[in-house]
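Researcher: Please predict.
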Amino acid sequence: MSARITLSVAGRVLHQLRRDHRTVAMLLVMPCVILTLLWWMFGDLPGGAIGFDKLGPALLALIPFIVMFLVTSVTTLRERSSGTLERLLAMPTGKLDLLGGYALAFGLVAAVQSTLAVTVCVWLLGLDVAGSVWVLVVVAVCDAVLGTALGLFVSAFAQTEFQAVQFMPLVVLPQILLCGLFVPREAMPAVLEAISNMLPLSYAVDAMSSLATTAGSALGDVDPEVWVDIGIVIGFAVAALALGAATLRRRTA
């Protein structure tokens, strides 16, 4: 794996994204719009109902993950079906160089996306966060990068953009249902709780929820379990990239 080639691939992807205004809008604006709509929807509920302060942290983990998964899987498939990946791999570009460049480019976008989403929620929508906002941003970025890595991985198994979208119910939906957003994970049946423990999104939601409820704005006040959760999410992202490199095909069949 060459750092120069990886950076070159990342630069090419960022250049393409800069010219695709619709994709940029979906990546950067859409999460903020969705979070604002949810805040508006939950804003007038009675005091005893679950409100935005309760669901907001989990949504900050979910929405960047979903958006990055969708955009990355479709974009990578489009590159392969157009022959771009085949031309790149015909040059001195390894699979890890290629996926590393894509992950770096989309990771930078994910960092901007997550920072904007957290900024909108905390400072504009008034999301009550007891813990460190900066660690909240870190968790959101890691979760968006996880969505990027999984999107790169599943794109190897799709032949059309429609098939790439079809992976969402298989890869994304079970994680949404079992991450603890609807039912606390410890209250689930034992089998579902065991499955939940094997899904990365569960740990991202746990970290977000802990930051929202545990007081202390300094890094030293952060619950050590949050760092463990972040490490698990990063580990899943690295594993997805490695599997993506192992299964990457030059073009669709």
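Model: The mean pLDDT is 80.
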